[in-house]
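re: that complex we talked abt at group meeting.

here r the seqs, copy pasted straight from the sheet so there may be weird spacing, ignore it
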Amino acid sequence: MIGKILIANRGEIASRIIRTCKKMGISTVAVHSEADADAPFVGLADESYSLGGSRVQESYLNVEKILEIAKDTGVEAIHPGYGFLSENADFARSCEEAGLIFIGPKPEVIQQMGNKVEARKKMEQAGLPLVPGFSRPLIDAAEAAAVAEKIGYPVMLKAAAGGGGIGMQAVSNEDELSKAFEGNQKRAQLFFGNGDMFIEKLIEKPRHIEIQVLADTFGNAVYLWERECSVQRRHQKVVEEAPSSFLDEETRNKMGFAAVKAVKSIGYSNAGTLEFLVDGDKNFYFLEMNTRLQVEHPVTEEITGLDLVEQQINIASGKKLDFTQAEIKKDGHSIEVRIYAEDPKTFYPAPGTITSLNLPSGNGVRHELAVHGTSVVSHFYDPMIAKLVVSGESRAKAIERLTEALDNYKIEGIKTNLPLLLEIISHQAFSKGDTTTDFIDKYIKKMKV
Amino acid sequence: MAELKASMAGSVWKIVANEGQSVTDGQDIVILESMKMEIPIAAEGAGTIKELKVNEGDFVNEGDVLAIIE
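got the structure back, here u go
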């Protein structure tokens, strides 16, 4: 059994991991940047060390320094959390070479799933349905038009190196495509230093639904149902829930079964998530696999009663999964909202200093917090400062509790998206479960900037 | 004369136009970076860049003037 773990991350997820370690009797080492010296997770850990600097390259991506602290403190394992080094195959390999357990899958598998084209190929071989597309970069607008003709409009134009929706555009005919191609290519080059463009069939009115899997190192794998994360802004998730109100039992099991089969075929171990787009007819298409713990994992924990971090640590310690698929519970409904330090209308980041923080409490209310009542929210890191997770015996009950909790959630000193969250949750379309990925554009008025 | 202002607090990641350059409506002038997000700040009308008020790496607050466009 692992006795001491270094957490190579920050914010709410570092606190979350430390909490489970304490429960399991495992000692913890936190590492932090200069800007985070005062963060809650630093005080929670048994030991904490500064990585120096505030920029991520100097701190949370500083592999050399992190491994040096791991060695000096005598930890046996490193938990990477999400983001930062969590899907960095080289880091996982460096951990192995240093004689440390990387809490996650093998480096080869991380690498495979990290490359979008490679992952598509592997998963297609494993029998997962893919969004029809073209898996090599397009030469120019003319080739894009030829491919689009074959796939059929509307299509989605995508930058290979893209993220956050930059370099991405839906087009419905050749004229639009030729206009959009060059602009998006230019922008992708400017932003990512890579102007490679791809094309995919546009899935209309899609939902983003993902399957949580757990696999041990003995070839056993299970799925912990789905999470629906369709409500997004800037292609980033804002609200996540489990189960999805859209899936029926048959589709749920079909997706879960396909995910488990795929995971086994690539030799996956530890916790992972397969993301799918699901269309109005409940056809599902594989998007990508995240080879790590997911931000929204708490909603799965709430309905299954499992602690995913504990499962991760057990698997990494070489334990077998001690339950079967048939034994996994699916009780009630859970919704998570991400609280971002950002302008609720423009969605622009809004760093600053918190002057007061009042958290709601009550039945079924769970907090994952990155800040305290006087925290400086730095511009160096992700704008997510907290997650609010609310559960109830039904979706309606969860929504009712979440509305009340959001009403009583008070953060002063910085701008947050709390007003937007309340608007989403109290919208009729949300309670009806009409949650396609265009939810915010469609139902929530947003100030144009 | 128009002032191009920062729509959020963050650091100046890239300046993608030069002083004296003529720009079109909607053309990106400066890209700000904050909280892992890169936000392009575009000209709100055609003109010539009279002055760039910031350098790459500078920290700016919401509302700070980034450039003057004539």
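couple things i noticed - Chain A touches chain B through 20 residues (CB under 8 Å). The CA atoms of residues 165 and 235 of chain A lie 6 Å apart.
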